[in-house]
Design brief:
eight-stranded parallel barrel, six-stranded antiparallel beta sheet, 34 strands, globular
């Protein structure tokens, strides 16, 4: 099996081993098992690191964030590589612009920061499908995160592209990557497939060589450490402020009797889900516990040091007893805010680090400028069905039964399902999904009149009325695939038959909607065929923010709007859900705004817009309110 995987990997790219960087003689990074520490260039080394995700931060701000991390006294950053961010279409990789991993590594190197790289293939990170590309689900019988041949073929093809790009950046080759994680928190996954970990170990060694430190990270339980670790991969642990440090490191010691103590994810905050309170972790507890670990000689990575933003459709979701999608904001209550601003938590952490290493002299770089641009009044473009030809230029797909997003090869966003009422509904009649087949949220209209919502795990039935032959539209929103646990094969769309009373609904016209393409091409601005009659349900609105010579960061609040998506100058800012919260503002990076041209605002409101149709640009975020 190992030989088969190596053959797939090498033949898929015909790669030749890259020549290691010149001038790397004498550079080394290794584990000293005798003295329980890392060795950098032969000398004991302790890293103090922070997690930062380039995929959640505009490229324009990478250098600013890295400099703030460096000035806080850290000597390393920990970086995930989301596979689906770089290969959203099978076989087509993108490492340009905001996806330019090597540029990010170079900036970190110029700043003086070492890198702990976590290339997956699975990363979790509350990211869509944990970083795995949704096109994997085209293989109906695939078993994710195992030695399944179809899965491993895709993984090896990906790693044969990614890891050769990474190899020149290894510290031993003259770069700044000191260690590389294999998979991520595998002990939390139900499969516990050691053959899978062995195959990954072979691939990582093949492409990266024998000199790089490879490691695993797992949660602080015996079961997680047992299933997530493998000989030849150095085992580390992760835990937060609610954990006994000695017990946690004893658990690491049960797997690694000698070598450095490592907390690969020390939680400075926590993630948020829609409809739940904004998470926070006390700065005093974080700084005190950090000091205790550093005093033990432990190596610590703070997760997160800056969280950033789930722009577009990149948020993930959890599913334990119920589907719980993650917010657009990934602020994480981290030492650097979502917008990259230093917080009191950062200053407390820097004061601790000063006790253990000399930190760079000079002031902490300030927060980026923020500006309250004020109110902008939008105008209605039209309900979704009135602009269907623009959003679905390829027309519909006919099918007896509903097809999933994956079957239609549209993996993100929205799809409209249309059929006709099979009979007169003399009284309100239940439209329902008995097997919870709506993934994830559906907006129902009859003859263009909005009826209400069906929602996964929450609202499986809705009463509607109408006459035989009336048009039934069901707009389905993918709210983000599950990123953790056993439910990661998370197909989207109408996955089971919909019933209307006793009737099974059939004969569907299915419209994949390419809203992002239309908006990035300039629609609806300049469209003169505006609909002025107010409408409920999925409807587009547009407006412009006039330039005033400033392009500062700002925060968009949609007060009294309900739920939807926002684009500015063609860039998808992400989802809002004002009535559910806790997030009440969307982060708008200043580099998205023009100082000379009108800034186009496009809003898809899915349920109900307020009469005032105003949105507000503020100079501060609001992340803490629930509906």
């Amino acid at each position: 099996m190992e030989l088969e995987i190596l053959h797939v990997a090498s033949s898929s790219t015909m790669i030749e081993r890259q020549t290691d960087r010149q001038g790397s003689e004498g550079r080394s990074f290794s584990i000293d098992y005798k003295n329980n520490c890392f060795l950098k260039d032969g000398k004991p080394f302790q890293y103090i690191s922070g997690s930062i995700h380039y995929s959640r931060i505009p490229r324009f701000y990478w250098q600013d964030r890295l400099l703030k991390i460096y000035m806080a006294g850290l000597n390393a950053v920990q970086v995930y590589v989301p596979w689906n961010f770089h290969e959203p279409v099978m076989g087509v990789q993108n490492f340009t612009g905001d996806r330019d991993l090597e540029h990010f590594l170079d900036l970190a190197n110029q700043t003086g920061l070492l890198v702990i790289l976590r290339p997956g293939p699975y990363i979790d990170a509350e990211w869509e499908m944990g970083g795995l590309p949704a096109w994997l689900l085209l293989q109906q019988n695939i078993t994710l995160r195992t030695a399944d041949l179809g899965y491993m073929e895709a993984v090896s093809n990906w790693l044969s592209v990614l890891l050769p790009k990474v190899r020149p950046w290894l510290y031993v080759n003259g770069g700044n990557i000191i260690s590389v994680q294999v998979e991520n928190e595998y002990g939390s996954y139900y499969a516990c497939d050691y053959n899978y970990l062995r195959l990954l170990r072979v691939l990582f060694r093949f492409f990266l060589g024998e000199d790089v430190v490879l490691f695993t990270t797992d949660g602080n339980t015996d079961g997680e450490m047992r299933c997530g670790t493998l000989q030849g991969l150095y085992a580390t642990v992760d835990f937060g402020t609610d954990t006994n440090i000695t017990e946690a490191f004893d658990r690491q010691r049960s797997i690694e009797p000698a070598g450095p103590l490592v907390n690969s994810e020390f939680y400075t905050g926590w993630l948020d889900h829609w409809g739940e309170p904004h998470a926070s972790v006390d700065a005093t507890r974080v700084s005190r516990m950090l000091g205790q670990m550093l005093a033990m000689g432990a190596n610590v990575n703070m997760y997160m040091f800056e969280g950033g933003t789930n722009f577009g459709y990149w948020n993930g979701a959890d599913h334990d007893t119920k589907y719980r999608p993650v917010l657009t904001s990934y602020d994480y209550d981290a030492p650097l805010s979502e917008a990259g601003d230093p917080t009191e938590k950062l200053l407390a952490i820097r004061d601790v680090i000063k006790q253990f290493r000399e930190i760079p002299s000079g002031p902490m770089p300030p927060a980026t400028p923020k500006f309250a641009y004020g109110f902008v009044t939008l105008r209605q473009v039209g309900n979704l069905t009135s602009v269907l030809s623009t959003l679905s230029p390829g027309g519909s797909v006919k099918s007896k039964i509903p097809l999933s997003f994956e079957e239609l090869k549209q993996f993100y966003g929205y799809i409209l399902y249309r059929t006709l009422l099979p009979r007169d509904l003399l009284a309100p009649t239940q439209l329902f999904s008995p097997l919870d087949g709506i993934h994830d949220r559906a907006y129902v209209s009859v003859n263009g009149v909005y009826q209400g919502v069906l929602e996964r795990d929450t609202s499986l039935a809705l009463n509607i009325s109408g006459e035989q032959g009336d048009t039934l539209d069901v707009l389905v929103e993918n709210m983000g695939r599950v990123d953790f646990g056993s439910e990661m094969k998370d197909y989207k769309g109408i996955l089971k038959n919909l019933f209307l009373g006793e009737d099974v609904l059939k004969d569907w016209l299915i419209f994949p909607l390419d809203i992002d393409r239309a908006v990035s091409d300039g629609w609806p601005h300049g469209d003169n065929s505006l609909q002025t009659e107010p409408s409920a349900g999925p409807t587009f609105y547009m407006g412009t923010l006039k330039p005033n010579g400033l392009a500062s960061d700002t925060f968009l609040k949609l007060y009294q709007w309900t739920k939807g998506q926002v684009w500015i100058n063609g860039v998808n800012l992400g989802r809002y859900w004002m009535c559910r919260g806790p997030q009440q503002t969307l982060y708008v990076p200043g580099p998205l705004l023009s100082t000379t041209r009108p800034n186009n605002i496009t809003v898809l409101e899915l349920e109900a817009a307020p009469e005032h149709l105003r949105v507000l640009f503020m100079d501060r975020p609001q992340l803490g309110a629930t509906g």
